[in-house]
Write a structure and sequence with these properties.
The structure is a single chain. By secondary structure, the chain is α+β, with helices and mostly antiparallel strands. The protein has a single domain, classed as 3-Layer(aba) Sandwich (Glutaredoxin). α5 crosses α9 and α6 crosses α7. Keywords: Transferase. Its EC number is 2.5.1.18.
């Protein structure tokens, strides 16, 4: 019999479609498996740069496969993720730094908003194909997630503060220390030992490791 709840840290970025899939599956299973799920918003570009990784779609065959794979997974997990060829260019051309700082600021002040807020960013970027680098769009997403306009305004101001910038940087560095090279990076703590899982398709394995 397992003692206590296993801590599961989810390092994610809203420009990563696989992060959204992994996020939804872990959100659904957190109560079934009684895991202590911790959302760790991080900066994917920072992880890629530090580890010398490249966007998967830079390899045409892999890009082709990813399109099919994400469509299949979205259908299977019933996540309203719509992907098209243009999205690979969109990921590169739209800056998500402000969005990830905004989510980080929410996590530092009112962590209960992390789940709905992150989800709304994914919906905006991946279901509605919107530009999440725009201030107005960020505020609209916050409204959708149930944040008051005062609170959203406060978070927006926080995005330019050293505290928030440093927190996002530190979380990203922490993911790298665990061995992350992309997103999502899921770290399960078992008997004080951190175990890293990459991607959204290792949930069964994760479950077996925590005795579920």
């Amino acid at each position: 019999v397992r003692m206590g709840r296993s801590v599961v840290e989810l390092f994610y970025d809203v420009v990563s479609p696989y992060s959204w899939l992994g996020f939804e599956v872990l959100c659904r299973y957190q109560h079934i498996w009684n895991i202590d799920l911790r959302f760790r918003p991080a900066f994917l570009a920072g992880v890629m740069q530090a580890t010398g990784n490249k966007p998967p779609a830079t390899l045409p065959k892999r890009g082709e496969y990813m399109m099919k794979d994400i469509k299949r997974m979205a259908k299977y997990y019933q996540v309203p993720l719509q992907i098209s060829k243009d999205d690979f260019q969109r990921i590169i051309s739209i800056s998500n730094l402000k969005a990830m700082r905004f989510i980080t600021a929410a996590g530092m002040t009112q962590p209960q908003y992390l789940e709905p807020l992150s989800r709304e960013f994914w919906i905006s970027f991946w279901s509605q194909h919107e530009d999440i680098s725009q201030t107005e769009k960020i505020l609209a997403i916050a409204r959708q997630a149930g944040l008051s306009s005062e609170f959203a305004q406060k978070l927006l101001e926080m995005t330019s503060s050293p505290a928030v910038k440093d927190r996002l940087k530190e979380t990203t560095e922490e993911a790298i220390k665990y061995g992350a090279f992309g997103m999502p990076a899921v770290v399960v703590h078992v008997n004080g030992e951190p175990q890293l899982f990459f991607g959204s398709d290792r949930v069964e394995l994760l479950g077996s490791i925590i005795g579920e």
